[in-house]
UniProtKB/TrEMBL annotation:
Species for this entry: Rhodococcus opacus
Enzyme Commission code: 1.-.-.-
Name of the protein described by the UniProt record: FAD/NAD(P)-binding oxidoreductase
Swiss-Prot/TrEMBL cofactor(s): FAD
InterPro entries assigned: FAD-oxidoreductase/Apoptosis, FAD/NAD-bd_sf, FAD/NAD-binding_dom, FAD/NAD-linked_Rdtase_dimer_sf, Reductase_C
Keywords of this entry: FAD, Flavoprotein, Oxidoreductase
UniProt keyword Transcription present: no
FAD/NAD(P)-binding domain boundaries: 6-311
The protein's enzyme class: oxidoreductase
UniProt GO MF annotations: oxidoreductase activity, acting on NAD(P)H
Domain Reductase C-terminal: 335-406
A cellular-component GO term for this protein: cytoplasm
Amino acid sequence: MGSDVRIVIVGASLAGLRAAEALRGQGFDGSLTLIGDEPYEPYDRPPLSKAVLLGIMPPDHAALPFRPDLDAQWRLGVRATRLDLENNRVVLSDGATVEFDKVLISTGVRARPWSNSSEAALDGVFTIRTCDDSRRLNERLSAGPRHVLVIGAGFTGSEIASVCRERGLSVTVTERGPAPLVGALGGVVAAVAADMQRDHGVDLRTGVTVTGLDGDGNGQLCRAHLSDGTTLDVDVAIVAQGSIRNTDWLFGSGLAAGPRGVTCDAGCRAFDINGIVTDNVFVAGDVARQPHPLYDYQLLALEHWGNAIGQAEVAAHNMIHDGLRRRPHLEIPAFWSSQFGVNIKSVGIPTYSDQVVITQGSVADRRFVAAYGFRGRVTAAVAFNQGKWLDFYRGLIESAAAFPPDFDVMDRAEPFEVRASELPDPAVLSHGPTVAVTGHLPTERRVEFVSLPK
């Protein structure tokens, strides 16, 4: 690509930054512009619900390093409001426009706010997504609130509850489902997470929701009402009810973009609303919806740190290459979380399963590996303080290994009992052959069909 080519990246966080670095690293010497709605250079978000809230890392220390020769134009503190594909330009909130030849959408997600705006405005009600959010919440937790309420027991809510207990704060966690993390890990493993929270002094309330928040008349939060009719006296409430993908600005653009993200192919090229792949619009990070052959080509939208980097690198490569030189993004999803003294790591998609078995370690010791399977093949694994084994399980997933895994280990303390993973059954696989991701280098990763034995 010539030096007269203009590439614009909308979203100046992890995915946007890594895509920009990959473009320069692969020799792109054209115009490069990064647009971000926050006034800060890119920073790392995982520490915001862990180290920053514990007070052991200042928020400004979460900045992401980047190559000094990036040679990019930064448009920070300004929001993209429209994508004009007819004229190949991005319209900004300050009225300016930025023209492009190719554009990468990496606008990520934002925290889902409390549904009642007047209650959300009470002093003491927080969400956490940005470094400013984390800074404000850290200040409030450091002031020693009497009682903290965490609304939602996904990974962010559970990590915040862990921080509160580590700081010696009284905390209640409410969760609509039967256990923390159940939406991500299934009921069997989620039951372990529930025991872990209660063992550390968390007042965990499952099967209930928060129906309202009260102020004291001076704008300060003082009380929460629960769906079971009980009330809690609280002075801090953290809303951790998931996220909203930042696709509003794409309304009317003609792209296949909506509340679930921007749909793209395996090469990170965006689809338009007619399902036709575009040649100059690419997507990466939390905002992307992408098919994966190991998961029945379902569209996956993943809020994972590693996935954002992987997609960014593939998108950058494909922006400056064409034809057979383009790469697919076929990495196996992986994530991690640290809470209540336990490091939880996952590889694959645990929700794409119908069965689960503890293959290694001891649940009682919070040190084990659980393997997940769907229709007779391994689809995921989750490790509690046993992350060193996940590369092995990644190999099982990529090769479509049989489930339950057929191997003997020395450290299994649990009976080898295959159980329902307590997740809704996914769509029935529609193709006959097993699909396996093969190869080791990015340029070699392709899909090959392996006929099932008759």
